[in-house]
Specification:
This protein is an alpha+beta fold. The chain is built from 13 helices and 17 strands.
């Protein structure tokens, strides 16, 4: 059996506020006999839905809800993993199901030191890969974008021109140096994701593209660039450095680049690639992700595999064990630059490992592609029942017979003013089939005020 911890980044590093729905994606990894620790009771519809697709019996899962702790059940309080109520329940379950020896692995979404403390308290530290490394706060190190640049250089992989800065003056100087050779730079927080912690800083407004992983945009006037850069950093340093707690990355922006990744699995015996995919952005927000990645030129794929392998070996040498995702950009000239590593169960894991590999068998003939999408802002989905009903009425739910259709990736959370917010995956044989599914949902859920908006451009932009 596995003990699965449905956690996420420690709030002490980055406060995500409410992760109750998102962390339930851990249920995609649960199989008969597994024990799952969650921050709140799982959505009953999602539990039935996910386990039906993975051929898992929900009655053979043991679910433990940790005490609410400091965050009221919105996310798993790291301190609650070693709460007596949690440990006692785990001990009782193990006593009835083969004892500690029946545990094959402790598997957490985020490599927190709290998971190491949990494993140690149970006498199962050897079942958590890299336990000693995590116990010393290693999870923060290997997910830090500033530390990435240091480790990437050590690994000998190419990165964008740039540096790591630790105060506003240093940041302003680095910004000016980089702007001498380009019209834009990217400012990156050490800890964030999906482009939310990135800001595109431009002097040339033609570079203010929406197809880049930088949620924020700032224009610097060229009339007095040194003064403008200094003023920017006085204003944004607290945001960029998380109130001065972390260093900041400043690097050259590469226009017209394509964002790809390669995930690897690191164990005590080595590292192996697990999948490659592509990320696409609309209005500087992550909007779509597709796996498997089949259309890279051979020379570019070779660079991706070689560089991600070097990074995997370096992170493994540091002490990390588990999944890592190496993100990179493909420049218009075919060169490749690595941009970050996510050493965790990333938001890509369920798309390729569960959907593409386990449910769809995407590489079998005829091949399929899985594209995960965020609900676009012009859609209004009032609640989960409405979306699932629409899938049924339109015949768009995933069909194992045709290996096509929509898989809802997470519980659908109703929002009182914005409507439901969630992600879903489209399984398709061709771009035309993908567009047909998207267009049908677009027609159903686009609000009257956004009828002229063409969100499908995000798929092909």
């Amino acid at each position: 059996m596995r003990i699965i911890i449905a956690n996420h980044i420690d709030p002490a590093i980055r406060d995500r506020r409410d992760l109750q729905a998102w962390t339930q994606r851990a249920l995609w990894g649960a199989r008969d006999g597994d024990l799952v620790v969650l921050c709140a009771p799982p959505d009953p519809h999602f539990l039935r839905y996910a386990t039906a697709l993975t051929s898992t019996d929900p009655n053979r899962l043991h679910l433990i809800v940790a005490p609410a702790g400091r965050f009221g059940g919105r996310l798993l309080d790291p301190q609650m993993l070693t709460h007596p109520a949690v440990l006692d329940q785990v001990h009782a379950y193990l006593a009835e199901h083969g004892g500690p020896g029946a545990v094959g692995e402790i598997w957490a979404l985020w490599p927190s030191a709290s998971v190491a403390r949990f494993a140690t308290a149970l006498g199962l530290s050897e079942k958590l890969p890299g336990c000693d490394f995590l116990a010393q706060g290693g999870g923060e190190l290997v997910n830090n974008k500033a530390a990435f640049r240091t480790l990437a250089v050590a690994a000998g992989v190419p990165v964008a021109a740039g540096t790591v800065v630790r105060d506003p003056g240093e940041a302003a100087a680095a910004t000016l140096t980089l702007l001498e050779g380009s019209g834009a730079v990217v400012v990156k927080q050490a800890h964030n994701g999906a482009g939310v912690g990135n800001e595109l800083l431009v002097t040339d407004l033609s570079l203010a593209t929406g197809h880049a992983g930088a949620r924020h945009l700032h224009h610097l006037g060229r009339a007095d660039l040194p003064a403008a850069a200094a003023a920017y950093w006085r204003e944004r340093w607290r945001w960029a450095s998380a109130e001065g707690r972390f260093p900041v990355v400043v690097e050259e922006f590469v226009p017209g680049a394509r964002t790809v990744y390669c995930e690897q699995h690191l164990t005590d015996t080595g590292a192996r690639p697990t999948e490659q995919g592509e990320l696409r952005y609309t209005d500087r927000r992550l909007s779509h992700e597709s796996v498997p990645l089949r259309d890279l030129p051979a020379a570019v794929e070779e660079q991706l595999l070689d560089g991600s392998g070097r990074l995997a070996d370096t992170y493994r040498a540091v002490g990390y064990r588990g999944r890592i995702s190496s993100d990179a950009i493909v420049k218009p000239d075919g060169g490749l630059l690595f941009t970050e590593v996510n050493a965790q169960i990333s938001g890509s894991w369920h798309i390729y490992e569960v959907f593409a590999h386990h449910i769809v068998h995407a590489n079998e003939h005829p091949q399929r592609t899985v594209t995960e999408s965020h609900i676009p802002p012009q859609w209004t989905v009032p609640d989960g029942a409405t979306f699932h009903r629409a899938l049924a009425e339109l015949g768009l739910g995933y069909d194992p017979a045709t290996r096509s259709g929509v898989i809802v990736s997470m519980p659908i959370v109703d929002h009182p003013s914005l409507g439901a917010q969630f992600t879903f995956s489209t399984v398709h044989a061709s771009p035309a089939e993908r567009d047909g599914i998207w267009d049908a949902l677009e027609d159903r859920f686009t609000t009257a005020t956004a009828q002229q908006a063409d969100s499908r451009k995000a798929l092909v932009g």
